[in-house]
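User: I'm putting together a small comparison set for a docking exercise, and I want a reference complex before I start. The sequence is below, and the ligand is zinc ion. Could you produce the 3D structure with the ligand included, as structure tokens?
Assistant: Of course. I'll restate your input first, then give the structure tokens for the complex.
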Amino acid sequence: MQSPHRPSLLRKMNVRKVLEVIQSQGTLTRADVMRCSGISAPTVSKAVSALLDAGLLEERETAEFSVGRPGKLLQLPRFSAQVIGVILDWDYCSVVASGLDGHLHEDKLDRFKTPKSYSELIETISRKILDLVEKEEIPALGVGITVPGLVNSNDGRIFLASNLHIVDGQTPAADIANKTNLECILVQKSTSLSLSEKTYGAGQAMDDFINLDVTSGFGMGVFTGGQLLDGQHGLAGEIAHITVEPEGGRVCGCGNQGCLETVATDLALTHYVSQRVGKELEFDTIKELVQKGELDITPELDRTIEFLAIGVAAAINIFNPSNIFISSRLFDLRDDVFDKMTEKAKSRALKPSSSSCEIERSKGNKYLGAVAGIINHLANGLGPRLT
Ligand SMILES: [Zn+2]
């Protein structure tokens, strides 16, 4: 039986496709869009009109002639419209404006220590967003917020942020929307990094890739068959909380014991090194001491790499990706860390999968992740309104 939602889903997919083509190719005419997307002229025309009306595209005249008349070029607005990216994290938060083409207005990037309470967090961020919007005399189309935690994609409520408990059970997108009157969307940090890779980075032409963010938690975003893997509530890909140390493992922010997240991240290394030296050290301090030759972290680093490789091998076996992008500062600690980890991961994974999987450091940018999240959301919202 045909789903009653099918027509709007198809229209939504067409809008997304048109936007993706322009995101990956830059400035194009309507004819170029048809050629690159394989979509028919009337459908391209409808999708382009909806994107222009929503301010997600802009059109400019070109001196070049196309079929005897001046052509019009379609492009993503850089300065005529903006979106706001908000990064929530356990140590620092940031607010940044961006053009829709992913050009960050970095001179207006505001980074600040994470407030201690949820109400203060919402108040501070809303004020900073309004300041930014009022300062620039261009329309803001929406706000993309990322959080290092588990988000219910159906209602935008955070189930759990293991390293930022003040947001547990909260709905920051709805609360910030109330204070700013802007459309807001909340995306898991790992998902946003995958979106950034797919929208602006190396993943543009890829259908099957994984983004791992192992800086504080062990976040994974998966694109499979060109689609972001979501699951029933948007919680698919939670590799962080599989048990790898059933006996005597550290208690995880999720309440269980011995999760992968407690042993295979930058934060895990920081914890174990701090524990051995007997005082709280930050990652940067550890890095500095290691580089000066004043601290040997070989046992902790080897153990962290071992567990990271187990996680990467599991991801390869389960999803058979062509590429895995990893964000981690562990690789900055010594020249051989990345190669060592890759070798271990590949030797643990199934050969047919691992031999054709490229593992590389992520160039995904967390700010662009938030920006890609809101643009994706705005484009998705256009589908049903197209008739
Ligand atoms: Zn856990």
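The radius of gyration is 22 Å. Residues 241, 252, 254, 256, 259, 261 surround zinc ion (CB under 6 Å).
User: Thanks, that's exactly what I needed.
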